[in-house]
């Protein structure tokens, strides 16, 4: 009997020592919960919705709808090509009856393609063609068209440091979108205060008239 009691005591001690503690169980439970919460955030779905709605509003020239995707605090930077070099202007909204620049009306495009998150197409002025057709957004790279313009301008005219800083901030963590059906549509999107907005409309790339 004495040996039997000793044997049972040893088994009990081994079970307690090897089993998880209450704290370990709680940490494991918390870890699993956090993982589930993180993967359920629909960031891509929201980004996809904003991109698609902006393009659709552009196609139908729905001025009220399209301007809901422009943040009043950020405004919209429109890139255009008045000559050999690109330029940009800052506006608070899009007015389809008053295009920027004035001589370049907002053209007709098609949105039959669904948005694809992939490498962007490139435009070849020699053949006047895109490397691929469709509707694309590249979330692996940050566009720098505005920074390129302002860095070039700094060589020929005084540019305030606040303007340079503003451009750098507006481009940070933004994505470039290109639609290559009909007259092309190119714009940049950025997340600001937990919502996605269109911050740049590029009306220069994809045209080789200059």
Strand order of the largest sheet: 2-1-9-8-7-6-3
How many domain units? 1
Tell me the name of the CATH class: Alpha Beta
- Order of helix and strand elements from N to C terminus: HHHHEEEEEEHHEEE
Shape: globular
Computed over alpha carbons, the radius of gyration is 27 Å
Q: Which regions contain 5 or more consecutive residues with pLDDT less than 50?
A: 1-43
Q: Please summarize the sheet with the most strands.
A: 7 strands, mixed
Give the SSE map.
Blueprint: H1 2-18, H2 22-39, H3 43-60, H4 63-66, E1 76-80, E2 87-91, E3 116-117, E4 123-124, E5 129-130, E6 135-138, H5 145-153, H6 161-171, E7 174-179, E8 185-192, E9 195-202
Parallel strand pairs: 1-9, 3-6
Antiparallel strand pairs: 1-2, 4-5, 6-7, 7-8, 8-9
Helix pairs in contact: 5-6
Question: How would you describe the overall organization of this protein?
Answer:
By secondary structure, this protein is α+β, with helices and mostly antiparallel strands. It has one domain: Nuclear Transport Factor 2, Chain: A. It is 37% helix and 20% strand. The protein has six helices and nine strands, in the order ααααββββββααβββ. It has a seven-stranded mixed beta sheet with strand order 2-1-9-8-7-6-3, with helices on both faces.
């Amino acid at each position: 009997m004495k040996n039997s009691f000793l044997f049972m005591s040893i088994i009990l001690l081994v079970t307690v020592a090897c089993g998880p503690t209450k704290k370990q169980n709680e940490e494991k439970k918390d870890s699993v919960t956090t993982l589930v919460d993180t993967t359920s955030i629909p960031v891509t779905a929201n980004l996809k919705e904003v991109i698609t709605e902006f393009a659709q509003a552009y196609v139908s020239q729905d001025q009220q709808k399209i301007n809901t995707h422009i943040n009043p605090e950020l405004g919209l930077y429109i890139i255009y090509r008045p000559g050999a070099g690109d330029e940009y202007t800052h506006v608070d909204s899009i007015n389809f009856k008053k295009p920027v620049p004035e001589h370049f009306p907002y053209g007709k495009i098609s949105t039959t393609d669904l948005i694809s998150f992939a490498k962007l197409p490139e435009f070849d002025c020699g053949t006047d063609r895109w490397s691929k057709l469709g509707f694309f957004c590249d979330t692996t790279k940050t566009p720098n068209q505005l920074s390129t313009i302002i860095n070039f301008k700094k060589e020929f005219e005084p540019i305030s440091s606040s303007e340079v800083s503003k451009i750098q901030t507006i481009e940070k963590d933004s994505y470039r979108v290109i639609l290559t059906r009909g007259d092309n549509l190119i714009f940049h999107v950025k997340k600001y205060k937990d919502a996605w907005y269109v911050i740049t409309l590029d009306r220069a790339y994809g045209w080789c008239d200059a």
